[in-house]
Amino acid sequence: MSHHKYKLKLLARLRELGLRLDGIEDALEAPHSKDWEEMAVEREGEEVLERLGESGQAEISRIGAALQRLNDGDYGYCVKCGSEIADTRLELLPDTPFCVTCAG
Ligand SMILES: [Zn+2]
Predict the structure, then answer these.
(1) CA–CA separation, 49 vs 98, rounded Å?
(2) pTM for this structure?
(3) Whole-angstrom Cα distance, residue 81 to residue 9?
(4) Tell me: the pLDDT tens digits for 7-35?
């Protein structure tokens, strides 16, 4: 099953949060690339991240991790127990790393 629609959702959310994404997708696909988050910070500077505050930064981290899992082919599986995460859950929370049981 393709998770492409979730990738689009995650990228759209990053845009909403105010990050410009030029090069971030390329960076994710390139081997030995810099950490995507580090790259986002470099591009946007402290100012944007300060404005986003801690909750926004935490969200960016979750989204970044989800994008990396998409890239690695691990997306859609719980990072804790390895179960497949239900589509209904991914629709609501595309950046979640946990199945409903482990998140509970
Ligand atoms: Zn789980």
Answers:
(1) 25
(2) 0.76
(3) 24
(4) 999 999 988 887 766 666 666 666 555 66
String of DSSP letters for 2-49:
--HHHHHHHHHHHHHTT---TTHHHHHHSTTPPPHHHHHHHHHHHHHH
Tell me, in angstroms, the distance from the centre of ligand 1 to residue 77's CA. Answer: 8
Task: Report CA(24)–ligand 1 centroid distance (Å).
Answer: 28
C-alpha–C-alpha distance, residues 73 and 1, integer Å: 11
E strand residue ranges, the chain? none
Distance 10 CA to ligand 1 centre (A): 21
Separation of 104 CA from ligand 1 center, angstroms? 9
